[in-house]
Amino acid sequence: MRIFLWYGTFSFNTIIFDTQVCQSVRDACANITRWVELDSGYALFLHNDLVELQQKREELFKKVRDLREKHCQLDHRIKAKNIETFTLLKFCLRETKIYAQ
Description:
The chain has 1 helix and 2 strands; from the N terminus they run ββα. Helix content is 81%, strand content 12%. β1 and β2 form a beta hairpin. The N and C termini lie far apart (124 Å). It has a two-stranded antiparallel ribbon. The longest helix is centred in the middle third of the chain and has 82 residues.
């Protein structure tokens, strides 16, 4: 309910609330205050999750680097064995030709 009071050339707006409206406003303010307090912890929660995920990412990157290095080493060993096998095969064929003659 609004009451408009006129005093001379000035007007004053006065708002009058009953007790139920006042209690509703107090409850709403208290709920907003609680929500803001609870929400402040959410940023910390997100920060901790981010730090944990970054640590996991670094661990995974390290595993990938190690696996790539191992792959390169094994690939080199296979190529070296292939060259060794090919050389041995050529030698065996050459020796077989010598004995066949």
